[in-house]
Batch of 2 targets.
Target 1
Amino acid sequence: MKRILLNSVLVLLLFACSNKAAKKVVVLAELPFYEDASFTPVWMSLEDPKLKEFHAIKSFTFTNQNGEIINEKTFEGKVYVTDFFYTTCPGICPKMTTNMKVVQDAFLTEEDVLLLSHSVTPEKDSIAQLKEYAQNKGVVDGRWHLVTGDRKTIYDLGRNTYFIEEDLGLEKTEDEFLHTENFVLIDQNKHIRGIYNGLNKASIAQLISDVNILLEEGK
């Protein structure tokens, strides 16, 4: 079973509304923090001085679908959702992209929410290729960045900073392909606050709810 954020204080309720089944996410608490690939929740106050030393996303530099340089400063003070994909993927990526667009569309008027999708085949996914993909998939420029760049940097970030991949405890070389359906939620201070199954509608609904928690948290 894939790793999905399991938060005992977040409950999914199903109820009937206008004779149609609907899903309602009830939020009862703040989100935990995560610091390693086990995704064991760590509950901390925002005022806790330990947060200054807590695991955070490190610096990076990539190029997006418009040929613009994207780095950690692009996401400064923003909530963002990240994933890893490639444009020619025939399997899980199209569904992941569809669900990431659901997240994008939920926050089209919210400037403090961004999306970041890394190509895991950067040698093939040129700027032109990413641009065509973005146009075909309804990506909104400035809100959702599809990026290419140095392969080693992308894989290192995915495995060792975002902890995006499965196979906890198994060492992988740079040559082994990075492929995962997970989405990771990052807060305004570059801390990991959740991991979600990017293929699952209920998980995407929970992600959208959790983004709203972080927006409130940042006020």
Note: Strands lie at 10-17, 20-27, 61-64, 69-71, 79-85, 113-119, 144-148, 182-186, 192-197.
Target 2
Amino acid sequence: MKNIKDRMLLKLYFLASVSILLFASCSNDDSGGSSGKLAVTGISKSVIDDPLVEGDRQVDVPTDIINAGNYYIIRGSGFATLKSISFNGLESYFNPTFVTDNAIVVLVDQKTPYYNEMDEMKIVTNLGTLNYKIAIRPPSPTIKGFPINPNAGDIITITGEYFLRPSVNFGATKVEPIESTLTEIKVKVPDDFKYKYLSVTNVSGTTVASQALGSEIYDDAPTNIWGWDEKWDGTNSFDLAYSKDASQGTKCIEWKSGEWDGYLIALASWNFTDTDKFKAVRFSVKGAKAGKVKFFINGDADNNFKVVEFKSDSWTYIEIPFSDVGNPAVLSKIGWQEFGGFGGNTILLDDIGLVLK
């Protein structure tokens, strides 16, 4: 399976394809304005890439289906004075820089309706309105949460969106759902699942979870990798099942920290010995106020550390390679020190785990 971080390369492929497209379109558009005829001659998906298949990435691929949440290239004529473009009645954003008389590059809004709709794209320019028939389908699935450290044979629930006729893979092992709705899938965990990635495929595409199975330290509650926790200041308030917010699953850790206070989690060395399979620590963090934390390992807050910033209005995903914190031969503890410099903060921590090599 592809490393999930490879999906960041899609942006580069998209920008490259857009640059080539606009160069070609501008070369063919010598009038400097509209051609006088509003028409669509073809539609291409900007990037096609199945995350379960190596080497299949393609750009600018002709299609007769629109999947919401993706970039498309609309080719034709009369687009120079584009006012709006909509799919099944919902307008999608377009950047005027990516519009010529012969082409439109558009990100189809993820919320575009797709069920029992008219399957129609509408383009409005100074020349008039063009209604174009094309199949509109949902985005690829989104994965909100699932038990990351299950046991073989467990019946688990995957939550997310757009689970339309879904299938589930544990690594390369395909598992048919026991039951499913648009937002939940129940599946049985197969044997030999550990340290593989879970993925969900719907009618539009495949999404791979960012966490490797068996890699989680905190997942709505402490897991088998969690040994115990330590507080620098016992007066700090902690809720290990805070349910009003979460970046993964339904719960997180709420830590009401005083200024410069610290919090540590020790790994359960008696039942977790696979640290050599990992290359980094990951976690998501959010604060009542935007701030900073000093992340450190093995109890050494003075040497093996890295200071990271976080926001108050959204979760910040942090990934810290072992190479940034001294390349430990053994990882026994991870910790955080409040580092905002403004008298303390309420800090939320979630999705705490390790990253596979």
Note: The chain is about 5% helix and 45% strand.
